[in-house]
Amino acid sequence: DDDSCDQADDLKKFKGLVLDLSYRPINIVGWKRALCLEILEKAEVLVYYDQLVCSPSRVFFIPAVLKMVDFVYSPKPKTLRLSLSRTNVFIRDKFKCQYCDHDRDLTIDHVLPVSKGGSHSWDNLVTACKRCNGKKGSRLLEDVEMKLDKAPKEPNVMDSRELPPSYRVFKNIVLNTKVPSEWIDYL
């Protein structure tokens, strides 16, 4: 059926979840890279999408979940101190709004607004959803009758094993509202 082999632009939406030998997510790759990993036998495909792609001589299903067949280097566990960054504030707050516990449309909020002397520091920055951040605006928490789940503070020294293997993968999985159903059993 020629329609099933149509190489339309909508193939870009097909991503492959790559797992290490212990089935931990380590990367998200495009469909072409996922297919190359399978063809080169660098990864074992655990789940396929129902979508087909064609070469001049063969038809392939697009891999959805792949497990690497060889060991992927993982640095030795070590203790580290997180630097102040947007991503690290999200990680400290477990990708949840600190006002309502919502986990979508996240931003960073200054608890004491900059316009009122607030600083850009661990103890003044929290993860907030757009709705709560908009509601609070540049006002004080008391003025809008809002409360924090917990007071923000600088995270203690962390064991590197507590952090996701890849911030990008972790963030994409946690924040993506459209995680493919083929991935669910592996997250």
- Please tally the β strands and state the result: 8
> How would you sum up the major sheet?
4 strands, mixed
- Category from helices, strands and their pairing: alpha+beta
Shape: elongated
- The ordered string of helix (H) and strand (E) elements is EEHEEEHEEHHEH
Percent of residues in helical segments? 10-25%
Alpha-carbon distance between the two ends: 34 Å
Protein name: HNH nuclease domain-containing protein
InterPro entries: HNH_5, HNH_nuc, NA-targeting_endonuclease
Pfam families: HNH_5 (PF14279)
Organism: Selaginella moellendorffii
Describe the protein:
Residues 84-134 form the HNH nuclease domain. This is HNH nuclease domain-containing protein. Pfam families: HNH_5. InterPro entries: HNH_5, HNH_nuc, NA-targeting_endonuclease. The protein has a 4-stranded mixed β-sheet with strand order 2-1-4-3, sandwiched between helices. The relative contact order is 0.17. It is built from 5 helices and 8 strands. The protein starts with 14 loop residues before the first strand and ends in a 12-residue tail after the last helix. It has 2 domains: 6-75 and 163-183, no CATH class; 86-143, Orthogonal Bundle (DNA Binding (I), subunit A). Helix content is 19%, strand content 25%. It is α+β, with helices and mostly antiparallel strands. It has helices at 31-39, 86-92, 130-136, 141-144, 167-175, and strands spanning 15-19, 25-30, 43-54, 59-68, 79-80, 106-110, 125-129, 158-159. β1 (15-19) and β2 form a beta hairpin. The protein is elongated, with a radius of gyration of 21 Å.
